Hints:
Layout: H1 2-36, H2 38-41, H3 73-109, H4 111-126, H5 129-139, H6 144-170, H7 174-181, H8 186-222, H9 234-241, H10 250-277
Amino acid sequence: MDEKITVRAQKIVKNRTKFKMIVFGGLAVLVILIASLAPYLTPYDPYEQDLSIALQPPGGSHLLGTDRYGRDMLSRVIIGSQTTIFSALLLVAVITCVGGAVGIICGYYGGKLDSFLMRVSDIFLAFPGMVFAIAVASVMNGGVMNAAVALACISWPKYARITRSQVMMIKHMPYMEAAKLSGSGTFKMIGKHVVPNIAGPVVVTAVLDIGTMIMEIAGLSFLGLGAAPPTAEWGSMMSSGRSMLQTSPWVILAPGCAIFLTVVIFNLAGDTVRDVLDPRE
């Protein structure tokens, strides 16, 4: 009787996880599709100015209103998704590859190289993350790419340490020893046995980091260290409209809500991926 209850409970949990994966994974894909097709989804030219309709409240032909230059806010939010989301996705991909490669090298080979690279990562981890990113971005004179480089400098050590710990856990496993005895070379060992067995935690961390990187890129742009006007980017749009929060709140609420919803979707998708890849499930 207890076994039947346990099996039924496991099925319920499994079905619930699948449902969450479909819903949140689908929403994440939808957000990426909207960003990909943004130029074809905007009802107006996001950069066309018309001062006769400046600061028009939401409603009518402009669902999210207009900004101080008469530009349609809905169009700017949609086109701004390209800069914000794709910058975050590219950044996460780069730091995952760089940090993962460093972690695999350190965990697999060990020795002085491991000690040196881990001490380098300790140096980056010793600085407050966002403060260091602000300093690097300001030295590099701002810009979206420079902001991404600044965030990459403070983010790769986390992936290096996660990957290194996973590699050190598995490199003495029986199947690894058997692969060595069968004559597998280093690259074959890493590609066939190491990477597939450490991918789970790294993928979960990467998906969860997408939302974080969106907020940090938007934060640097808000401070004037990312995308510069008139480029449509959510953080830059919030910075431009902050002086009108009391008189024309839609100018800052539109990109702010876009950031909030996007981050929530990617965080929920990351939690679901973690549940799916959890070996206990």
